[in-house]
Amino acid sequence: MDFCYNLSMKVDKKFIWDYETKNLNLKNPAVLRWYLARKINFGDYKSLNTKILEKNLADLEIDPTLKSMIKKFYANKRAKTGA
């Protein structure tokens, strides 16, 4: 499993009201997946690092239809940019 430890993402407290975010360690793969899934489930994509999301998408516990939609979005984005 290749997690993006070298990429940074700021913890946004807006949708994490029920947890103490002061010591939230996004370098921990389980915490990172939980955080990404939580942000996606609440529709908060604005502060997500797209490289981190794309690399971890397959392992997130989110609605399969939503996961498929996000995968297609990234595939279309790559096709348009030629990346």
Blueprint (SSEs and pairs):
Layout: H1 29-41, H2 50-56, H3 64-81
Could you give a quick summary of the protein structure above?
With 83 residues, this protein is mostly helical. The chain has 3 helices and no strands.
Question: Could you characterize the architecture of this molecule?
Answer:
By secondary structure, the protein is mainly α. The chain is built from three helices and no strands. It is 46% helix and 0% strand. The longest helix has 18 residues, at 64-81.
Structural class: mainly alpha
Shape: elongated
Spans where pLDDT lies below 50 across 5 or more residues = 1-6
Fraction of helical residues: 40-55%
Q: What Rg is obtained from the alpha carbons, in whole angstroms?
A: 13 Å
Which H/E pattern describes the elements? Answer: HHH
The count of DSSP E runs of length 2 or more, i.e. the number of strands, is 0
Q: What is the typical, i.e. mean, pLDDT?
A: 82
Q: State the end-to-end CA separation.
A: 22 Å
* Main beta sheet strand tally, sense and closure: none
Q: How big a fraction of the residues is strand?
A: under 5%
